[in-house]
Amino acid sequence: MRPRIHPSILSADFVNLEHEVGRIGNADAVHVDVMDNHFVPNLTFGQPMVERLLEVTALPLDVHLMIDDPDRWAPGFASAGAASVTFHVEGSADPIRLARAIRAKGAFVGLALKPGTPVEPWLASIAEFDMFLVMTVEPGFGGQSFMSETMPKLRSLADAVEAAGSDLLLQVDGGITTATIGIAAASGANTFVAGSAVFGSDDPNAAIEALRVAAAP
Ligand code: DX5
Ligand code: ZN
Fold first, then answer.
1. What's the ipTM?
2. Which residue minimizes the CA distance to atom 4 of ligand 1?
3. Domains in the chain, start-ordered, CATH in brackets?
4. Has this prediction a pTM greater than 0.90?
5. Per residue in 82-137, pLDDT tens?
6. Diameter of the chain measured on Cα atoms
7. Is 173 a known active-site residue?
8. Ligand 1 neighbourhood includes 171 CB (under 6 angstroms)
């Protein structure tokens, strides 16, 4: 599979978002970080922003919910038109039930794991999800350093996905640059979120292409 690059608008200019998404035509999706100042110590935006972004970009929206009680809020993002809705297992009362509710609204569903959260309890349930997100930083902020200690978890997930013959997407998020993306790709990731590496560049589309090249084996 060609490496998928999902720029995170967390590193974009929030007062010029229409312009900013217009600068990433090479991307495979726009990664939208929703933070509630409770699940993580930072606050961004919510469902109205997703609705408005859908009006100004043809790219799919990959919504990453870093919020308490996703069981209550996540299906609304799917109804709003997000292509995928990813929620954190640490915040959900019933991840399988929530995954089914998101799919029932017509979106793909992702399960996100913080760096310290083990994946083993979910390996038998990969068919319930379309994507797993292995966080490669503690969620909350852009511009942090890639945590390579998360790679064994990614590898065990990739092995389980391959054994199941599944086409599940394996996403990494945090500290992805041309220097680190190859490490994550070698451990089985095929979908890469990059905030500062894309929006910190003078030429975001060139930065996206450089990440794709660096991800290739
Ligand atoms: C962090 C967010 C990331 C963030 C990544 O909690 O989930 O999506 O934007 O930013 P970089 O690529 O700068 O590490
Ligand atoms: Zn994210």
1. 0.99
2. 142
3. 4-215 (3.20.20.70)
4. yes
5. 999 999 999 999 999 999 999 999 999 999 999 999 999 999 999 999 999 999 99
6. 45
7. yes
8. no
